[in-house]
Design brief:
The protein is built from 15 helices and 25 strands. The strands form seven sheets. The protein has a seven-stranded mixed β-sheet, with helices on both faces. The longest helix has 21 residues. It has two domains: 275 residues, 3-Layer(aba) Sandwich (Aldehyde Dehydrogenase, Chain A, domain 1), CATH 3.40.605.10; 182 residues, Aldehyde Dehydrogenase, Chain A, domain 2 (3-Layer(aba) Sandwich), CATH 3.40.309.10. The chain starts with a helix and ends with a strand. The chain is an alpha/beta fold. Helix 3 runs antiparallel to helix 5, helix 4 packs antiparallel against helix 7 and helix 10 packs across helix 11.
């Protein structure tokens, strides 16, 4: 596999082969050093059509695999991911600047989805339903929906594709992935590993290039049966709208504005530790990270002291150094947003506690109000905006005051408070005394403007299956 990772010229991956025969060649420098690194050949319309045909052909071969054959292939894919974690982690950091230790974690996280679906694929049970009459038998089976189109983001370039394709392969659905322009090499590495694991040709295709060229072929195609997207609300709505004409099944994960509620009886040390884990993961560039910190007014001073002390200890530096916890190399849009959010907050009366000098440095804000960008928008930045509340109902109202509904966090030692809060928060995922509620065995997804559909967990594989009812007259 070393030979693949050392290639200098990359192109789209179609029918288990990388095609660099045509299309525009574009430089792909290392995001961290800004020095020349790779070149990428952009896909043509003809190549997009070939990928679509390849996926359609792979549907037949995948459906002919037994559940146990697919389980073995999924396990082998997970093993190959772990065996090549050093190469993969380096590519992730080179492409998007994530601290190298977190890149290693992303490889393991991705592999865990292949292991999870290796277990789930042998548990897709059909049903036999008792009939009202003795002259009929009623059965239900779950069938693969068909070829899928995935559009994935830059912030978790390996696992965002991995958790989609692992479920799709388990369900016998081939797929085509349009990676973000920032991190195409990571997706190509995943495609190469899937090939080496022994999956049929065309099971996972990766198209590099202009999204208009790719979308113009795949979105109107009746051969593509499902679209799955992780990214912004605007693009998600566009893909949803363009999928209506052919009535494709759609899964959307569109970001969040997660509240992190610390009640008066919370274990403050645990809450502060978990807040640091949640907020500063990937240097703040995570759709599920804590975004609005709601603290009971009676514990504000004590909790603030703990958070500030921990934030000051974070190591900000070169993402290739193992001790680095926050990268100095973040997406330019994230840095612009950080600057705008802090400037807006200060202008409207917020107080800074760390006096950060750069947008990638941690900052803690108090006196935050609902009219500030820090409360209204997903920051994708290492900013901790803190508000206070007096009652549980006030905390719930503040938390739900957003169009998003992806993740929320609750810290309390009271079963009664925990029960009331989790029942009334309008979010798809809730971390109860847990700052990292994301795992392969947990359904991942939101409600409201955060989208719909789930990835991972017991329901994840069913996003790629349709229900077939069979009534047999005896």
């Amino acid at each position: 596999m070393k030979s693949f990772f050392e290639k200098q010229k990359f192109g789209s991956f179609i029918s288990n082969e990388m095609d660099i025969s045509s299309g525009k060649s574009v430089d792909h420098p290392c995001f961290v050093t800004k020095k020349p690194w790779k070149t990428c050949q952009h896909v043509t319309k003809e190549q997009v059509k070939l990928a679509c045909a390849s996926a359609k052909k792979a549907s037949i071969e995948l459906k002919n695999l037994t559940a146990y054959e697919k389980s073995a292939l999924l396990i082998k894919t997970a093993d190959l991911l772990r065996a090549n974690k050093a190469y993969l982690a380096e590519i992730i950091t080179r492409e998007m600047g994530k601290p190298i230790t977190e890149s290693f974690g992303e490889v393991e996280y991705t592999a865990s989805y292949f292991n999870w679906y290796a277990g789930e694929v042998v548990r897709i049970f059909g049903l036999e339903i008792p009939s009202r009459t003795k002259k009929k038998k009623i059965r239900v089976s779950f069938e693969p929906i068909g070829p899928c189109y995935f559009v994935t983001p830059w912030n978790f370039p390996l696992c965002m594709a991995g958790r989609k394709v692992s479920a799709a392969l388990a369900a016998s659905c081939p797929s085509i992935n349009k990676p973000c322009t920032e991190a195409p090499i990571t997706k190509l590495a995943l495609a190469y590993i899937i090939k080496k694991a022994g999956w049929p040709s065309g099971s996972f295709n990766v198209l590099i290039g202009d999204h208009d060229v790719i979308n113009s072929i795949l979105l109107p195609s009746r051969d593509i049966k499902k679209v799955s997207f992780t990214g912004s609300v605007a693009i998600g709505k566009y893909l949803y709208k363009e999928s209506i004409e052919t009535l494709k099944k759609v899964t959307l994960e569109l970001g969040g504005n997660a509240p992190f509620i610390v009640f008066e009886d919370a274990n403050q040390i645990k809450a502060a530790d978990e807040l640091i884990l949640s907020k500063f993961r990937n240097s703040g560039q995570s759709c599920v990270c804590a975004n609005r910190i709601l603290v009971h007014k009676n514990i504000l001073d004590d909790f603030l002291e703990k958070v500030v002390a921990r934030a000051k200890m974070l190591n900000v530096g070169n993402p290739f150094e193992e001790e680095t916890q926050i990268s100095t190399h973040r997406h330019p849009n994230s840095d612009k947003k950080a600057i705008a959010i802090i400037e807006d907050a200060i202008k409207k009366g917020a107080k800074r506690h760390l006096n950060s000098k750069a947008p990638y440095e941690p900052e803690v804000l108090t006196n935050v109000t609902k009219d500030m960008l820090a409360f209204q928008e997903e920051s994708f930045s290492p900013i901790v905006p803190i508000m206070t509340f007096a009652t549980i109902d006030e905390a719930i109202t503040l938390a739900n005051h957003t169009n998003y509904g992806l993740a929320a966090y609750v810290f309390t030692e009271s079963i009664k408070t925990a029960s009331y809060a989790t029942e009334n928060l309008e979010f798809g995922m809730i971390g109860l005394n847990d700052g990292l509620p994301s795992a392969a065995e947990l359904p991942f997804g939101g409600i409201k403007d955060s989208g719909f559909g789930r990835e991972g967990g017991p329901s994840g594989i069913y996003e790629f299956l349709y229900t077939k009812s069979i009534s047999m007259k005896l």
